[in-house]
Amino acid sequence: MLILFETAAGYAIFKLLDEKKLQESENIFKEFESPDTATQLLKLQHFEKFADVTEALTAATAVVEGKLTKRLKKVITTVSKGMHESLAVADSKLGSAIKEKVGLECIHGTKVQSLMRGIRAQSEALLVGLDKKEMDTMAMSLAHGMSRFKLKFSPDKVDTMIIQAVNLLDDLDKELNNYIMRCREWYGWHFPELGKVVTDNTAYVRSILSIGMRVETKTAKLDEILPVNIKEEVIAESETSMGTEIAPEDLTNIQHLCRQILDLSIYREQLSEYLSNRMATIAPNLTVLVGELVGARLIAHAGSLMNLAKYPASTVQILGAEKALFRALKGKKNTPKYGLLYHASLVGQSSNKFRGKISRSLAAKASISARVDALGDGEDTSVGLLNKQKVEARLRECEKQQLRQVSGTGKGHKDTKKFEFKKEHKKYDSGADFVFGDNSEKSPSSGKKRKVDTSGVTEDMDTVPGVVGETGSKKKKKKKNLD
Questions:
Q1: What does the pLDDT look like over 35-60, one tens digit per residue?
Q2: How far apart are CA 112 and CA 90, in angstroms?
């Protein structure tokens, strides 16, 4: 039996002298306790040395991927020529490739792994003619090369650059706002009306550099900076300005600040373009779905693109609103519906009623797009475009549903009937009238008189001074008749 053993210096092919020892895999490690017992079990048939570290890295990379290189195929064919032997290999994929291309039967398994560990332990004694220092140097170089290969280092696929760029972009925005506010306040002591007329920050700063002192406004070249109507208004305001006078040294410092603002603005534009290009390279599907700025902030908040790909959609939805989430959980209130995704264009287009639904759908599609970008190769944006179309369709469906509810023609809603005004003519019932002071009243239904009890009313009338009721006089007449 032949044994293929890969080293940092080259390929080694050993011959197993006693194949019965391989059957005793539990005790095979005893055969490698000393160099003498190891040399009695194995014999070096051939050693193919690498020319340099690059060749060693190429060979090791092919072995890791289970591929058979031309050089290894040539070595195996040369050594096994005329020998009806099987070959023991450590990797099953490599064994399948050798059997397919060379036609040599390959053996692999736990017994072979134990044999490989023994060879590695006694490699100095078994590999005769190799310098130990050379082997160590080759092993160190190959280890560094393999580490780079496993990490798959590529300057085009480093999300650290995106994290640093988007953080710097946010810092630049804050610094520019502070600088512009300081510039307006500083120059406002000399020419306060200019800040009210010119609202654009860049135009305001360039106007300060062109005008200088307020008295030189007429001779300043403002045609390329301001429109004609605003320029005339600035000149008119400069003649009646309420600002104070400043020294030339003060103006020099103000203009120096203005130049710093313009330089930072130019650098911010360059950084924004750089970020867009990086996002299109590293996360093209996520960029198409939510935009480069929101996508970069999601990656920065997660720590890396791979971490973002590992997050579920529910976490992506509230990413950036952790404080509000825990505050809501602590106070037993409603949890937030969105975090950084609130700034996405698809969420901004929706109404307040459906922003929660759209953010949930967008988070699900963003999670899928991030996984495709992190684990896939190439710059294909088909997944991102498809997910964006689905979210837009969901948004249109929500808007149509709202329109159906407003119109009342939706499924499950009753149609409202048209209101019709009915005219009804009622006759006046004169029999319901009552005249104060009458004792009896004829009913309209019958000709009989109806007695009305007015005792309580007459008593009250008798108590009123100067008023004499009819009932009081009748009582007196009845008393006279009795007498």
A1: 888 888 888 888 888 888 778 888 88
A2: 7
